[in-house]
Amino acid sequence: VVRDKRTGKTKGYGFVSFSNPTDLAAAIKEMNGKYVGNRPIKLRKSNWKERTDVEALQRQKNHIQKKPKTQKKGILHK
Which residue windows does the record flag with biased composition (Basic residues) (predicted)? Predict the structure, then answer.
């Protein structure tokens, strides 16, 4: 489930992945149009390019290695 970074509230959508294409077909057949609370579930296949776990790990490693930006101290003039 995707949440707003500032408020922490859900944005009303999320993502799921399936390792088996038949599981995707079964989920679409069984869950599409069902309700969670008062919201209908809308399922569709993503068109996102396939990624390898190695690529994801490399991106995560690069993200962690970035140093946080330090704030510059203001100079007060008299």
Answer: 60-78
> Please, what is the average pLDDT of the chain?
79
The CATH number corresponding to 1-65 among 3.40.50, 3.30.70, 1.10.150, 2.40.30 equals 3.30.70
Element (H, E) at 22: helix 21-31
Separation of alpha carbons 12 and 24, rounded Å: 20
pTM: 0.48
Alpha-carbon distances of 43 from 17, 26, 33, 49, 62, rounded to whole Å? 12, 11, 8, 18, 32
